[in-house]
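Budget justification aside, the reviewers requested a transparent look at the raw inputs and outputs of the sequence design task funded under Objective 1. We therefore reproduce one unedited record. The lines immediately below are the C-alpha cells for a 245-residue chain.
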C-alpha cells in the first residue's frame, strides 16, 4: 500500500487534462458526455490528449450511457476501443461490465483485463450498481483489476465514508479503493480517513458561451465543462500535506 496520496482527475476536455497535469494530478480519466456520467471519448481526443500530457491517461470505455450491461455488438466496441487505447499509448482504461441481474460480469471483466495488458484496468462506477459490493470486490481482485472507482454505492462518496473504509480494509492492499463522486477540498479529509490513497474528482465548472452571436432558438448548445484549477490545486495541496513519503 502506498503512503503517497494521489489525485485522478475526471476530465471532459483536453483543457482539463492540461490543467490536471499542471496542478500535479497523477492521472486523468478521460471522458465525454459529463451529463450522462461519462462515455468513451473519440479517437482524435485520446490521441491529442496523449500528445499533450505525460501523466497517466485512462480513457473510460463506455460505449453509451445507461446501464453497464452490453450486448455482443457493444462489447465488441469495447474491445476495439481497447486496441485504440493501446495504439495511442494510454496507460490504462476505466471500464465496467455487468450481467442482466446487476452482478459483475466476471468473465467479460477478465477478458477486458487480458485484452488490455500491459495497460492497467480500473473498474469504473459500474461497481456502485452491483447488488453486493463486497462480493464484487473479491471478483475484481481475481480478475486482475488494479483499482475500483467507487462512491461507496451512494450518490456522493463523502456520504459513504463508512462503506469506503470497509472496502479499503477488505482490499488489504490487493487493489486500490479510489473514492469518487462529490469529492471536493472541503470533504477530502473525511475520505482520507477511510484509508484510501487515490481520489477522483472532476472539480468541473461550466464555461460560459463566448460566442459574440448567440440565438435562443437553438436549444441543444449544451454546456462545456472544464476543471476548476484552483479547486484542484486545493485538493492536491491537501493530499500532499497528508502524504507520508
Amino acid at each position: 500500500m502506498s503512503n503517497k496520496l494521489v489525485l485522478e482527475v475526471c476530465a471532459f476536455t483536453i483543457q482539463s487534462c492540461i490543467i490536471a497535469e499542471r496542478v500535479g494530478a497523477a492521472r486523468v480519466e478521460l471522458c465525454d458526455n459529463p451529463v450522462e456520467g461519462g462515455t468513451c471519448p473519440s479517437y482524435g481526443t485520446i490521441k491529442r490528449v496523449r500528445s499533450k500530457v505525460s501523466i497517466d491517461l485512462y480513457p473510460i470505455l463506455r460505449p453509451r450511457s445507461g446501464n453497464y450491461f452490453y450486448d455482443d455488438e457493444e462489447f465488441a466496441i469495447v474491445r476495439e476501443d481497447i486496441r485504440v487505447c493501446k495504439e495511442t499509448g494510454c496507460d490504462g482504461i476505466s471500464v465496467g461490465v455487468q450481467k442482466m441481474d446487476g452482478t459483475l460480469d466476471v468473465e467479460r471483466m477478465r477478458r477486458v483485463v487480458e485484452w488490455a495488458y500491459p495497460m492497467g484496468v480500473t473498474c469504473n462506477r459500474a461497481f456502485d450498481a452491483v447488488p453486493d459490493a463486497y462480493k464484487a470486490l473479491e471478483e475484481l481482485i481475481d480478475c486482475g483489476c488494479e483499482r475500483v472507482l467507487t462512491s461507496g454505492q451512494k450518490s456522493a462518496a463523502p456520504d459513504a465514508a463508512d462503506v469506503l473504509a470497509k472496502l479499503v480494509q477488505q482490499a488489504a492492499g490487493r487493489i486500490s479503493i479510489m473514492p469518487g463522486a462529490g469529492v471536493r477540498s472541503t470533504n477530502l479529509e473525511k475520505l482520507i480517513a477511510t484509508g484510501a490513497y487515490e481520489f477522483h474528482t472532476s472539480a468541473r465548472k461550466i464555461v460560459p458561451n463566448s460566442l459574440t452571436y448567440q440565438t435562443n432558438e437553438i436549444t441543444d448548445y449544451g454546456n462545456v465543462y472544464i476543471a476548476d484549477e484552483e479547486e484542484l490545486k486545493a485538493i492536491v495541496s491537501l493530499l500532499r500535506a497528508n502524504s507520508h513519503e
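The first helix runs from residue 14 to 23. The CA atoms of residues 7 and 25 lie 5 Å apart. Computational costs for records of this kind are itemized in the attached budget.
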